[in-house]
């Protein structure tokens, strides 16, 4: 080993690792831990954005309240509401269905103006926004 080089080991099993920080894990230990980490993150997300709040958000959006205002009414961020979809694929579909059901019929959907000035976050308006980059 060259002078000054450190030989680190996996913090779980002690397997030698290439130069990394001292709290690193080997690939085998990382793979073994991923399911429990994912469960823990899901449990935290569910505690921060409980089922009652998710149902209330869907009800507000379906009733015609735009997404930013509905999130504001429930004191949650739009990122939190959208981000819950990382743990629940059905949530993504339910949210999009509510956005489509409650969208303003007077807006020209699928345009950046509907996204920006109409605060519409339906799938068509989000696609128009993402096309801008």
Order of helical and strand elements: EEHHHHHHH
Helix coverage percent: 55-70%
Shape: elongated
What's the gyration radius in Å? 22 Å
DSSP summary: helix tally:
7
Q: What class, by secondary structure content? A: mainly alpha
Distance from first to last alpha carbon: 48 Å
Largest sheet: 2 strands, antiparallel
Annotation, overall tally of beta strands: 2
Strand order of the largest sheet: 1-2
How would you portray this structure in words?
The protein is mostly helical. Helices cover 56% and strands 3% of the residues. It is built from 7 helices and 2 strands. It has helices spanning 27-48, 51-62, 67-73, 78-83, 89-101, 112-116, 123-131; strands at residues 8-9, 16-17. It has a two-stranded antiparallel sheet with strand order 1-2. β1 and β2 form a beta hairpin. It is elongated, with a radius of gyration of 22 Å. The chain starts with 7 loop residues before the first strand and ends with a helix.
């Amino acid at each position: 080993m060259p002078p000054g080089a450190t030989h680190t080991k996996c913090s779980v099993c002690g397997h030698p690792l290439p130069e990394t920080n001292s709290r690193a894990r080997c690939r085998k230990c990382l793979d073994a831990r991923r399911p429990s980490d994912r469960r823990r993150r899901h449990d935290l997300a569910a505690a921060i954005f409980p089922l009652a709040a998710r149902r209330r958000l869907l009800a507000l959006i379906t009733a015609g309240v735009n997404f930013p205002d509905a999130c504001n009414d429930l004191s949650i961020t739009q990122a939190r509401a959208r981000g819950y979809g990382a743990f629940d694929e059905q949530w993504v579909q339910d949210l999009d269905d509510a956005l489509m059901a409650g969208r303003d019929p007077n807006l020209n959907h699928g345009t950046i103006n509907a996204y920006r000035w109409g605060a519409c976050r339906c799938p068509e308006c989000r696609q128009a926004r993402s096309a801008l980059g």
